[in-house]
Design brief:
The complex is a heterotrimer of chains A (281), B (787) and C (160). Chain A has 281 residues and is an alpha+beta fold. Chain A is built from twelve helices and 14 strands. A five-stranded antiparallel sheet of chain A has the order 4-5-10-6-7. Chain A has a four-stranded antiparallel sheet with strand order 11-12-13-14. The chains are: A alpha+beta (281), B alpha+beta (787), C alpha+beta (160).
């Protein structure tokens, strides 16, 4: 399938990209790896009139940390996240999540910024970033602003990035927590039917604090606050499972062809248990 | 004259591979001609609708667009509707089926207009601009809704949605059920499957307007049948039509058809006087290429108190889709004789009703009718084992047909050669059945959340479709023979021209092995030509696991004729009688005087120069053979699957898969194993992953590879293969066929394993595919609602 | 139209393309390298896999303009001076292909797998091939071929 025609401009700086976006108006889109946008365009479900290619903005491809905070440039690929020893040490949840996206070819092209800004509720990285209390740096003509992950996702394919703005970086506070992403899907290359991001602080064999993010359990990535509270003090399979069962306190998830709401809830509960146990192991 | 086998049965590597691993294959999409125009189809987004005004103005004005044509515009181009070659009963309802719809659309994907443009992109842009006024009508997508009172009719020309009912009875079925101690009554559904050859369909047509000639390259399994039917449908003299199947990227039955797009491109090339090309996108193929399966089966077995089977009843409802494609109505009947599987009994009844729905037509998909039948009998015999209280192995052994030749089956056919129990024993030995059972008990006793189950499938299938007379008695519209021509070239090599049309099966290699042995020449000295009706004018192509047991035998026999003629010429050259010659390793030698000899290459040269030939012998060393076998072949085997089920999530993992197949004598073991691997993978996919679903309005929900779950390497295990060899008596090489056996056998093996794993919960039934949610829900419900 | 130039199998190609031209069609139709196939329109099947600047990508989901300035390797560039890459040999010897349509993508994906993991287990090969679909082989002989080629490459490296 061939997409509808469009104009193409390659930006050589963030400022240039923003100016091109402004000129292009409401039907202009940013193109990074293209792995969210191009499939929609090929099926003619998206018809931008202008693509602003930011794929050459190499200064947005980085993973850097100062010990307290990790900053990741928006154009860093899933592969680079999964492959980064620094990230595996500093923030294993993010590396683990990135390694489970799509397939190797997709991970070579897909970017963290594209994945976050596309705001697909079945997408893995937004959930992990929500669980990590990340902040997103959004740049517009008037300068940049920081949006907390909890405020960033507004609904399916809707987020805090306004027309004429672009996501340039992700900041993750480093807590030393152990993290694991568990993904339930039918085939390895598929999107998550349910995903669970668990970030856990352990003291003396018990959970000191936990962050639990959920993928595809609603229109945006979700935090399971009741589970997080209940997990504090958990030490073993039984107490973790009891805490995980509090996932039922969340708003009821949706039914679709992939899974019923009941099954989604059940799988989320099972995966929370497994992810937390793995993180503690 | 026989010659020792040097290549047949041995491990030669495929001749097809070098071009394919270097990117030098020629698939249809790679064919480009000067001045070629591109075709795009405008397709219905509705399952059922009346076509109102079609506005083509904007499309016609779009850059590069050459023509925009509706069904009405093209109505004068067809000499006949799209062909259906298997009117299974005299009163079958055959709806009009035009390549481009005129008044109404009947499934999502039904073509309503075509756009021809200079480039593929311009054609797509033009198609985007065609505006069609549809008046949506109620659609009906599933079999039972289509048969309900007051159901919307797919075709107004018929009173209801039934297409035909075909029945077969053998013996006194009612008597068998009356005297039975045990009657097992089961109901199974066969989900709709999408074949998914990785190469999408495509066609290129080159006209020569002044000559009225047409060359059609199509990604088809059936160039020869296509030639006949393209000519009839487009109203072009058959001799003016040349069909070429170049490298074809898989078929699995989905390219065993005559498609609207092929005919449309042919008539567009005629109308425009220019070459035209169309290649399906994958999503387009999902609605516009035939689907498979989609049946509801009621299966009954009558048995005595020991579980010895007395009789069978199988009543099938088969979803035809909206129209009848080439063999849509006949496809379920390819299983009509196999609902008794490899087992005995006195009486048999089969009945199938075809039903129209507002869905993509169904047709052959790997196994075509036999996977459905095998699934039913293999599930039902496990149900019988439960009813009798014996192990699935024991119930099978009690009921296997006896070992022998021409063994009558309750379904009415005589099976060529049978030897079932030793085959099953081999599979049991490989899997170490008793150990698996012990492990199963241990896990259950320990309360392990991961449980295991073992499932059997002791299938028999029929292939080598075959005797033309029998096919005729079933109302099939063509013969079951196949043809080969073997030419010894003056320089000593052989050209083998075959009517089989491979698309991955390795015929070039296997036929080279057969010819090299028969002619006593080198494997590399054989060239196999196929897939071009001008080069290979006679053939019935590749489908139904028939190529080796029909087309391959034609090659074998044509080689025999070459050797016979060569022997006469050699005798003449050596001045002896033909009976005084021996033929071994490509050399004719005089019995008792071994140094008086002539090689077949020398004979070929002599036949070409024709300077000195026996009286009345024609020059040249070319022979032709058409093989029409006396019977089908009936490959059989035992597949044993071991699954592990995660009771917390319902996920099923195949941990062992043992396949012991008996396809008679084997020409190329590596190719046979490859066919089993691929076949088993497709059957596992049906058991655990794949299911095409429609919304009530006729929208295909599983509309792309994103949500129709073709498994990857990550979802499948490695398989453990072995063979027994029981040569067929249906052909001189003793071969049977292996292209579909894996698919036929594996789905019930997997499902029997799943149900075996769940048996201690009291779960005895589940529909395929066994999705994690279905498995988990069944366990939860069995436990009384608390998972 | 946008002017692009890229190196394909070491040969530079320059052309004006529509921005919507996918890399796979550029390879097939502008560069005449028809070994890279198109099997789907949802980035699912991997038949179009090529190396772009040393990494595997699905060429049906990359615009040709995005590949401007890149070095692309296709199946046609896999052999060296006519000598097959060990993966090509292994696919042949292990019967890792039937119809051959997915094969170029499988080969290129496998090149990428072995570049990142020269000594993979069977399970690692199966998972690394998650983005490539084959309908003929059931994958078993593809996996065997990748393992055989890995061994060959390791032993060549050890000797080299």
């Amino acid at each position: 399938m061939i997409s509808a025609p469009f104009d193409y401009e390659r930006a050589d700086s963030v400022a240039a990209a923003l100016e091109l976006l402004r000129q292009g108006g409401e039907d202009a889109r940013l193109l990074a790896g293209g792995h969210s946008l191009l499939p929609l365009m090929r099926l003619r479900l998206a018809r931008p009139t202008l693509l602003v290619d930011i794929g050459r903005l190499d200064d947005l491809k980085y993973i850097s940390g100062d010990g307290d905070t990790l900053e990741i440039g928006a154009l860093t690929t899933h592969h680079d996240l999964a492959d980064s020893h620094e990230l595996r040490d500093a923030c294993p949840l993010l590396a683990d999540t990135a390694s489970q996206i799509g397939d190797p070819q997709v991970r070579h092209r897909g970017t963290i910024g594209g994945s976050v800004a596309h705001a697909d509720p079945a997408s893995d990285l937004p959930t992990a970033l929500l669980a990590l209390d990340a902040e997103f740096i959004v740049q517009g003509a008037g300068g940049s602003r920081s949006v907390a992950a909890g405020d960033f996702f507004h609904g399916p394919f809707m987020c805090a990035v306004e027309e004429g703005e672009m996501l340039t970086a992700v900041r993750v506070p480093l807590s030393g927590a152990r993290g694991v992403y568990r993904k339930f899907h039918r085939r390895a290359q598929d999107w998550a039917i349910v995903g669970v991001a668990a970030s856990v602080q352990v003291e003396s064999g018990a959970v000191a604090s936990a962050s639990i993010g959920l993928t595809n359990m609603g229109g945006t990535p979700l935090r399971a606050a009741a589970v997080e509270d209940a997990l504090v003090g958990a030490t073993d399979t039984g107490s973790i499972a009891t805490a995980a069962s509090r996932v039922a306190d969340l708003p009821h998830p949706h039914d679709d062809e992939q899974a019923s709401a009941d099954y989604r809830l059940h799988i989320a509960e099972i995966l929370i248990g497994r992810a937390v146990r793995a993180a503690m192991a | 004259m026989a010659t020792a086998e040097k290549y047949v049965g041995g491990g030669v590597l495929r001749k097809e591979d070098p071009k394919l691993v270097t990117g030098q294959g020629t698939f249809v999409e790679s064919i480009t001609l000067p001045g070629m125009l591109h075709v795009a189809f405008v397709r219905s987004p509705y399952g059922a609708a009346t076509i109102g005004a079609v506005d083509t103005v904007a499309a016609a004005e779009s850059p590069g667009v050459v023509a925009v044509l509706t069904g009405e515009d093209l109505a004068g181009e067809w000499a006949a509707g799209l062909p259906m070659a298997w009117p299974v009963t005299d009163d079958i309802r055959i709806p009009d089926h035009w390549p481009v719809a005129k008044d109404a659309v009947r499934y999502v994907g039904d073509a309503v207009a075509v756009v021809v443009a200079r480039t593929r992109e311009q054609a797509a842009d033009g198609a985007d601009l065609v505006s069609v006024d549809y008046e949506e009508r109620p659609a009906v997508v599933d079999i039972e809704s289509a048969r309900a009172d007051g159901a919307p009719r797919v075709h107004d020309q018929f009173e209801d949605n039934d297409c035909y009912t075909w029945a077969l009875t053998n013996g006194d079925v009612d008597a068998a059920f009356t005297k039975a101690d045990i009657v097992v009554t089961e109901r199974y559904t066969q989900p709709r499957l999408i074949p998914n050859a990785i190469e999408p369909r495509g066609v290129v047509v080159q006209p020569v307007p002044a000559a009225g000639d047409y060359t059609i390259w199509s990604a088809t399994q059936i160039p020869h049948i296509a030639k006949v039917l393209f000519a009839l449908t487009a109203g072009i003299p058959e001799a003016k039509v040349r069909v070429i199947a170049p490298d074809v990227g898989g078929g699995f039955g989905s390219k065993l058809n005559i498609y609207a797009e092929e005919i449309v491109c042919l008539v567009l090339a005629r109308r425009l006087g220019a070459p035209v090309k169309w290649v399906a996108t994958r999503s387009e193929g999902y609605v516009a290429t035939v689907h498979g399966r989609d049946q509801i089966q009621e299966m009954e077995i009558a048995a005595d108190t020991d579980g010895r089977i007395l009789g069978y009843r199988a009543k099938i409802l088969a979803n035809m889709g909206a129209y009848l494609q080439l063999i849509t109505p006949g496809t379920p009947l390819l299983g009509a004789f196999l609902f008794c599987g490899s087992y005995g009994g006195e009486a048999y009844h089969f009945e199938c009703t075809g039903v129209f729905t507002n869905t993509t037509p169904t047709d052959a998909y790997r196994g075509a009718g036999r996977p459905e039948a095998t699934y039913a009998i293999e599930r039902a015999i496990d149900a019988l084992a439960r009813a009798v209280g014996v192990d699935p192995v024991e119930i099978r052994k009690r009921n296997f047909l006896p070992t022998g030749e021409m063994v009558p089956s309750p379904g009415g056919l005589a099976f060529d050669t049978t030897d079932y129990e030793q085959n099953l024993d081999r599979a049991l030995e490989i899997v170490d059945y008793d150990s698996v059972r012990a492990e199963q008990r241990a896990r259950r006793e320990s309360g392990d959340s991961k449980i295991i189950g073992v499932g059997l499938s002791t299938y028999v299938e029929m292939c080598g479709l075959a005797p033309s007379q029998v096919l005729g008695s079933l109302n099939y519209g063509a013969g079951g023979w196949d043809a080969a021509t073997v030419r010894m070239l003056p320089t000593g090599q052989a050209e083998v021209v075959t009517g089989s049309s491979p698309h991955g099966q390795g015929h070039v290699t296997s036929w080279s092995q057969i010819a090299a042995d028969a002619l006593g020449i080198g494997f590399d000295d054989v060239t196999v030509l196929h897939g071009d009706t001008q080069v290979a004018p006679h053939g019935m192509n590749t489908c139904g696991s028939r190529s080796l047991s029909v087309g391959g035998i034609a090659v074998h026999n044509a080689c025999g004729r070459v050797v016979d003629k060569a022997s006469r010429i050699a005798a003449h050259l050596l001045e002896v009688a033909p009976d005084d010659l021996e033929f071994e390793g490509g050399t004719f030698s005089v019995k008792g005087v071994p140094d008086r000899q002539a090689t077949i290459q020398e004979v070929a040269y002599a036949a070409w120069t024709a300077h000195s030939l026996p009286e009345g012998e024609e020059p040249g060393l070319t022979e032709h053979h058409v093989f029409d076998p006396p019977n089908f072949t009936f490959p059989f085997g035992s597949h044993i699957c071991v699954v592990e089920i995660d009771t917390e999530t319902g996920e099923v993992e195949i941990v062992r898969y043992v396949a012991v197949d008996d396809c008679g004598n084997v020409v190329n073991p590596q190719i046979v194993d490859g066919q089993v691997h691929g076949g088993v993978a497709q059957g596992i996919a049906a058991a655990l992953f794949e299911e095409a679903t429609y919304a009530e309005d006729g929208t295909l929900q599983t509309s792309s590879m994103l949500n129709y779950l073709v498994p990857s390497a990550a979802e499948l295990p490695s398989f453990e293969l072995d063979r027994t060899v029981t040569p067929s008596n249906s052909n001189p090489m003793g071969v049977k066929g292996i292209g579909e056996a894996g698919t036929i056998a594996s789905t019930p093996a997997v499902m029997n394993a799943v149900l075996d794993a769940l048996s201690h919960f009291g779960i005895t039934d589940m529909s395929i595919p066994a999705t994690p949610e279905k498995v988990w829900t069944a366990i939860r419900d069995a436990k009384g609602g608390a998972a | 139209m946008t002017r692009i130039s890229l190196s394909i199998n070491g040969v530079s190609h320059e052309a004006d393309v529509e921005p919507r031209t996918l890399l796979v069609y550029f390879l097939r139709e502008c560069a005449g390298l028809t070994g890279t196939h198109v099997g789907c329109d949802t980035t699912s099947c991997g038949a179009c896999t090529v190396l772009m600047d040393g990494q595997t990508v699905k060429a049906c989901n990359v615009l040709a303009v995005q590949a401007d300035g890149s070095e692309v390797t296709t199946v046609e560039g896999l052999a060296t001076n006519g000598d097959w890459h060990p993966l090509q040999t292994a696919f042949h010897e292990e019967h890792g292909l039937q119809c051959g349509f997915c094969t170029p993508g499988m080969l290129m994906a496998s090149v990428g797998i072995l570049a990142e993991n020269p000594d993979p287990s069977e399970s690692e090969v199966r998972h690394a091939l998650e983005g490539n679909l084959c309908r003929c082989t059931g994958y078993q002989n593809i996996v065997n071929a990748v393992l055989a080629a890995a061994e060959q490459l390791r032993s060549s490296a050890a000797q080299g």
